[in-house]
Design a protein that fits this description.
The chain is an all-alpha fold. Helix content is about 65%, strand content about 0%.
Length: about 140
């Protein structure tokens, strides 16, 4: 069952209806109890938050895919302008400590050489003099 279907059924119960038949619940139903209704309302709120978070994640993912596509169209590295993830930073450090050049690292990470050098500076793996020597 999808979350949206489950949400609809919970809302039906809170409205006093059987979610399967959509007929009113009997007055003796435990679902008419105030505490049970409060619980259902809390579940509905949490489920709505969860659905909204999922929607935002999908929207962001789509946005990242669109940005990558735009970068490709403009002849830029695919990840140009993207933040460095923690795992990318670890990979960058490992590659640099293995004496790979910023140019090689940039190609592997789909970044510009300037981005790699900037991140190496930020991570204090090189100083400004060394950064200048790469450009």
């Amino acid at each position: 069952m999808r979350k949206s279907d489950f949400l609809g059924q919970l809302k039906s119960l809170v409205s006093g209806n059987n979610p399967v038949t959509n007929k009113p619940l009997s007055n003796t139903s435990i679902m008419k109890d105030y505490n049970n209704i409060k619980l259902l309302v809390a579940l509905i709120e949490e489920l709505e938050i969860s659905l909204e978070e999922e929607r935002l994640i999908q929207e962001k993912k789509k946005s990242l895919e669109e940005r990558s596509a735009q970068n490709r169209l403009e002849g830029k590295p695919e990840r140009h302008g993207f933040s460095w993830t923690e795992s990318e930073k670890i990979e960058l450090k490992d590659a640099f400590l293995q004496d790979l050049s910023p140019k090689t690292i940039a190609k592997a990470h789909q970044r510009t050489i300037g981005s790699v050098i900037s991140q190496l500076l930020t991570m204090k793996l090189i100083d400004q003099d060394e950064a200048d020597s790469y450009q």
